[in-house]
Request: fold
Amino acid sequence: MSDENNTSANVTPLRKPVPCPECGHPSHRDHYPFCSDRCRSVDLSRWLKGSYAIPVTEDETNPDEDSHG
Reply:
């Protein structure tokens, strides 16, 4: 049994910690890529409020329109 505990201590993480996108602290496995549930909730709140948006450019050429006349 002590061998199992010793080998589990030597397991390398699947992902290396990256800075939390909210506060910059190292990320935590349970909340990846965030460091805590708080930072994850703050980011989710921004998504739900529409703070994040993908910029769209108006394309003057529309392939659906008939330009023949």
Q: What stands out?
A: The first helix runs from residue 2 to 9. The CA atoms of residues 27 and 37 lie 11 Å apart. The mean pLDDT is 79. Helices lie at 2-9, 37-49.
